[in-house]
Specification:
about 160 residues; alpha/beta; six-stranded parallel β-sheet; 6 strands; globular; disordered N terminus
């Protein structure tokens, strides 16, 4: 468990997906990089607070869909992250559904209860997401390949230097 931290951006790029088409596009684009992905893991993130307005069950069903084509190189690893906003009840529901990676804003006794519940499950709860390409943004699907090929590193460097 990684409480009260940002998702480790060294895992690889992050992409915000809003449905099955976005998920398929992100997975296929990541798979197409093959060995060029360098063994990194693609972070697939829900929209901000999607756990509140779509619900954890929706996310669980979405990310359970198998990739259209498996990666012949054995790469293409992904991690899915559900953003529960500041709703600890939704985070608890997500944990009961077996979702192991959550974003939960806020602090206090309710957050502490979620962290306590997550610990024995090996779930990871963080407060913030890394720099992500949101596939709902204008032009984002066209920019996806460049983002996955290294654009995400520049965005993380800019944020780290105060420019992002």
């Amino acid at each position: 468990m990684t409480p009260d931290a940002t998702v480790n951006v060294s895992l690889g790029p992050g992409v915000v997906v809003h449905g099955a088409a976005d998920l398929a596009l992100a997975r296929e684009s990541w798979r197409a990089l093959g060995p060029a992905a360098g063994g990194l893991t693609l972070g697939l993130f829900s929209a901000r607070a999607a756990g509140c307005f779509m619900g954890p069950l929706w996310w669980a069903a979405l990310v359970a869909q198998p990739p259209a084509r498996p990666d012949p190189h054995g790469g293409g690893a992904t991690e899915d992250w559900l953003d529960c906003g500041a709703a600890p009840g939704r985070a608890m529901q997500a944990l009961r559904l077996g979702l192991p990676r959550l974003i939960l804003a806020g602090c206090g006794a309710q957050r502490a209860a979620v962290l306590d519940r997550a610990a024995p499950l090996g779930a990871r709860i963080v407060q913030q997401r890394p720099a992500c390409l949101d596939l709902a943004a204008p032009g984002a699907p066209r920019a996806l390949a460049a983002w996955l090929a290294g654009g995400w590193r520049r965005a993380c460097d800019d944020i780290g230097s105060g420019l992002g």
